[in-house]
Structure prediction request, 354 residues.
Amino acid sequence: MKLCINEIIKIFPEIIPAPGTKDQGLEISGLSSFDDAGPHDLTFACDSLYLARINNTKAGAVVVPDSFSPDPLVSLNCVLLKTVNPKLSFFKILELFYPEKPLVPHIHASAILGNNSMPGKGTRVEANAVIGDNVIIGSHVHIMANVTIADGCAIGDYTVIKPNVTLMEGTTLGHHVIVHPGSVIGSDGYGFAQNEGSHEKLIHTGYVKIGNHGEIGACNTIDRGTLGVTSLGNGVKTDNLVHIAHNVKIGDNTLVVAQVGIAGSTCIGKNVIIAGKAGISGHLTIGDSVIVGPSAGVSKDVPENEIVSGIPHMPHKNWLKVSNIIPRLPDMRKKMFSFEKRLKNLESKSELME
Prediction:
């Protein structure tokens, strides 16, 4: 596919050429990253790291923030296109060049459907999928190869379940949910009771509920509890290799980055960001709009709108000071021993003078 700059501007009126742009007839034949783009590629730059290097790109055109003004003394080799949200606008254009394949309704001959489990209108079920009894499947759902859906699950319209996903009993997915390969939703939580030196497994009757427009990364494990619900609100997005334990509650539009672990019965608010490798203890409350820094260890409640980092967690500004001090500790230790030695010498002299 090929589009001229002026054709892109007509399709997306929120994109305007920077003042003085003359080459609106430039033909765009591909889209690429900032550093890999060529003379007929379109790319985008939305933060200072890339905007400062705008004159180095080999791209034919770059989508930039509408507030950006290049250095007038620097000659640019690319066309600048301005918009409020460069990243979002760029990926709208990307959809033109790489349109999603239409979903062709089909139930593969090797798929197994249990009693009272009929897929809705326009749904596709691929090879070796196994669907249990009394499963509710909405319209235009895409269930890919080797998916297992246990009894009593419910799947909303336009949801995509990618290969090798397992949904255990009672799992509920809203509409427009994406579950990436290898994830297990609704497995038993870590529930045991001590009995005379042994650990007896407890029956798990809870279930997992995921809201609308959620996205679950690859190889996530989201557990059900012995009782009650593990719930992820609307618009929750998890990265790969995330573990969410039994009875956790996550509010709408929260982001959970790779390798995060959340222990049981913790409640996380709306619009929270939990950065990579962070660990959150159980039975805590994390307020709305909190940001948890990478590799942080959260061991007590966090009020809304706070930014925390470190182990144990602390206000992010404090953690910056602490992390700046840590590399200096060996020298500080030497100085401290030197001061102690000098102090002892002074004390000894003082005693002799007495």
